């Protein structure tokens, strides 16, 4: 398994190349800075070749934080997630 420093560097490289705002990069960096190396590895594996997915998950994370425990807002987030993934599945099937 990769060492802790190497996985942190890969996360930083992805965030730098992603086109996310400073605030969004800071959100991820804060969440991943103390994370287990396997979590950083999952981040790298998920997003290193798919910045659109990273941007979606960033917005999704922000909406979930904002929703807190508000069931109606959380349901709206879930609806947006379902729509996003249905569209991605449709695109992948047509390729």
Describe the protein.
This protein has 95 residues and is mainly alpha-helical. It is built from five helices and no strands. Helix 4 runs antiparallel to helix 5. The longest helix is centred in the last third of the chain and has 24 residues, at 71-94. The radius of gyration is 15 Å and the shape is globular.
Helix-residue proportion = over 70%
Secondary-structure element sequence? HHHHH
The biggest beta sheet reads: none
Q: How many helical stretches?
A: 5
Kindly summarize this structure in a few lines.
This protein has 95 residues and is an all-alpha fold.
Topology overview:
Layout: H1 4-17, H2 22-33, H3 37-47, H4 51-67, H5 71-94
Helix pairs in contact: 1-2, 1-3, 4-5
Search tags:
single chain, about 100 residues, mainly alpha, 5 helices, globular
